[in-house]
Amino acid sequence: MLPVPPDDTRREPDAKLYPLLSAINSPDDLRRLPVEKLTDVCTDIRHFLIDSLSSNPGHFASSMGAVELTVALHYVFNTPYDRIVWDVGHQAYGHKLLTGRAARFHTNRKLGGLSGFPNPDESEYDTFTAGHASNSISAALGMATAAAIKGERRNVVAVIGDASIGGGLAFEGLNNAANSANNLLIVLNDNDMSIDRNTGSLNSYLAHLTASKGYNSFRYRLYRLLRKLHLFNDRNKGRVIRLNNSLKSFFTKEQNIFEGLNIRYFGPFDGHDLPRLIRVLNDIKDITGPRILHLCTTKGKGYAPAEADPSVWHAPGRFNPQTGKRITGETTPAKPKFQDVFGSELVELARTNPRICGITAAMPSGTSISMLQKEFPQRTFDVGISEGHAVTFAGGLAKDGMLPYVAIYSAFLQRAYDNIIHDVAVQSLPVTFCIDRAGLVGEDGVTHHGVLDLAYLRVIPGMTVASPADADTLRSLLLTSQSDSRRGPWAIRYPRGTAHDSGTAASELPVGRGRRLSEGADVTLLTIGPVAYEAAEAVREAAAQGISTTHCDMIFLKPLDDTILTEAAQSGRPIVTVEDGTTDGGLGSAVLEWLAARGYNNIPVTRLGIPDRFIPQGTPAQLHTLCGIDTPAITRAITDAARNAKTANK
Q: Which of 194, 424, 449, 601 would suit a FRET pair with 367, their CA atoms being 20 to 30 Å apart?
């Protein structure tokens, strides 16, 4: 079924509504405009984003806040020869509009359409994949260094924002930036927000730099004077930087952290003052060596509701563009979200267990650990965009008697893999990883799908891995995880979206035991996670064709339920496994390994799951169909397995 053909339908921007944007098919068109027209281009972009995203939802506030910056960068730099590397694609919708994709923007985040993030396969202007945070400086430094090695006079710009500067990888890039010959410009888009309000001492430091605007303005004027007098060049730049640092120390009794890393600092400037922004970029673009431009912007700029509540308007869904009222489309009470079931149950457990604490990495509302934060702020920690630190910090808490629950999205937890192994699993520490957004997450696409966690966690010695099919099982897993009898680290993974919920009270579960959902004589169906409900429907459809199925919800991937597998193997029935994770290394692989280790080599096994390739964006239902784990595909697998077995036994 894969790959998906692109959606090439086009809807050119209405020239009456967007007179300037409609005439821009590439940055070359933008650069032909006089500077005084660029503010109108920004107005067109904002109106277009409001109109488009109100009906086809996406990431709203970040791109609205980066409009002037986007226009200035493409106006000043010769893209795509000059490179712009975006950090977190939330900022880059305006970039897509200026680089020939406005006519296809209605396909944004849809199956076969535009990716919601910069994607080099989509456009030569998208220089590097940008779905996760903090990678722009390192990637751009590599490009700038490559240009220096090849003798190319190419500007490379890293645009880092939405609090990504606080990520560990960003610091590693900053630390290394001055160690080699390069022409790297780092644009710090400081909007004081990631998705939720920023935390940490770096955020306070940037606020202090903003407060020091008078000094920094003086320093920039001094730089312009020296440049005009030809006193700032490659031969004496080291002396000028040392003079600048001395002035800073003399006047403020402290040193700029960036200049301490030998990165020249310019700013802070108003990131919405487009004429000045263009002047500053032109002033500094030809300076050799790494430098950082600090811009202060407003997330959601140009749309009052988004400016007033940028967290909600990070990705607001559909809304009325005139009133700002969000459209939920719900006419009946919704099922609970998995994340809210987690958050509320953790609060219940924390009320009676003072050892429980919660950790998240810049996603308190996204993971619903904000519920614990509200009631037990002293036991809840938002460490910012620092997943590796979150895990090792949890290890330290656990080593001294606490029970940490680390709530992080599946795709983001990948960045902390070494920390999970080295700082938690090796010491068999009781850290529970509450892995949100597991499986196919939908429109956020390839960089956000959480399809690798079952495989990458299963191989870690001592790790317990579980995936609840519903809210009842999630509550029971959380209760079991805080039991005194538990050993080592746990991982409980669950998807984005709503959960089936019967309201059954939590009860402790036997570790490594699944549950039998139906009995049958023809096929054994083994599932893990919420795909059990699609599989249960497939069992009913197969029954209508005369095929009976034993269906077991395994609950635990590690340890596996020996009783269920022994019965399945001894029955001789064909086995079908279904999971919303990669088939390589997941439940299907674990079952095959279990059978082989015990000499059951003649049991046919059909594995359904995510194929060995990266999956694009689309609705979860579309992607389940694409990957062959929807009800019709499971039904076919059951009926084919049963018929093949009957044929083989004749």
A: 424
